[in-house]
Design brief:
Elements lengths: L1 H9 L11 H4 L9 H5 L14 H6 L21
Length: about 80
């Protein structure tokens, strides 16, 4: 999830020219974010309504791995 945020909100679209981030290009933000801004506050699912779809699967660790044949999801059995 952090990689996708960095790719879309921090990193410029071009390595050679300062063209802005993909998020800026589509009008989600007006400027690039710094790494400090991205990591300043953790976005828990109950704080942010937009954690759904593939991002929710990534956040909750439900993405399967092709390299492991019998990749099972971790189920917390004794958590309160």
């Amino acid at each position: 999830a952090i990689w996708s945020v960095w790719r879309n909100y921090v990193k410029d679209r071009s390595e050679n020219r300062r063209r802005g981030t993909p998020a800026k290009a589509v009008g989600i933000t007006e400027r690039s974010l710094s790494v400090r801004e991205v990591l300043a506050r953790r976005c828990f699912p109950w704080r942010v309504r937009t954690v759904r779809g593939w991002l929710a699967e990534c956040y909750f660790g439900r993405i399967g791995t092709r390299a492991v044949e019998r990749c099972g999801a971790h189920e917390a059995r004794y958590a309160v």
